[in-house]
Amino acid sequence: MRQRNGPTAALLGKGHLMTGLRSTFVTAVAAALFALPVAAGTAAADDGDDAPVMEPGCAKLYDYGYGWADIYNACGHTISASVEVDGWDPDCIQIAPYSVGTIGLEPGDEPYYAYEC
Predict the structure, then answer these.
(1) Domain containing residue 91
(2) In sequence order, which ranges of 1-117 are alpha helices (DSSP H)?
(3) Gap between the Cα atoms of 16 and 108, Å rounded
C-alpha cells in the first residue's frame, strides 16, 4: 500500500468520517429546506377569512368606490368582464390587454370580485 506524506495525509486518512459528516449535514439541510415551504403554506391556510379572494382568470377587481368599480385585465388579450355584487351583476365591458376598465354600479353596491364574461 502506498503511504501518503504531507500536510493532507492526516485528513485523507479520515475521509470516511468526513464523508459521513458531510452526508449527515446535507441530509439535515435538505430536510430543513423542504420543511420551510410546508410550514409557510400551513400558516397561510390558517388565516381563514382574512385572506383576499383569489380571482381566477384575467379579470381582477382593481379598485371601487360609490357607484363604480375598476377591473384590471392581467392578460395579453382583450377580455369582457364584470363584477359580482349583491342581487345583480352589471353588464360586461371590454378591457384591452394590461389595462383598467371602469364599470358602473348602483349606489351603495360593493363588488366582491371581478370575473370574465
Answers:
(1) 59-116
(2) 9-12, 15-45
(3) 74
Cα–Cα distance, 32 to 27 (Å, whole number):
9
Written as one string, the DSSP assignment of 85-96 is -SS--PPPEEE-
Please indicate, yes or no, if residue 4 is contained in any of the structural domains: no
Q: Are 101 and 74 in contact (CB under 8 A)?
A: no
Q: What is the pLDDT of residues 67-107, one digit of tens each?
A: 999 999 999 999 999 999 987 889 999 999 999 999 999 98
Q: Looking only at Cα atoms, what is the longest distance across the chain?
A: 92
Asked if the model's pLDDT at residue 36 lies above 80, the reply is no
**At residue 48, does pLDDT exceed 60?**
no
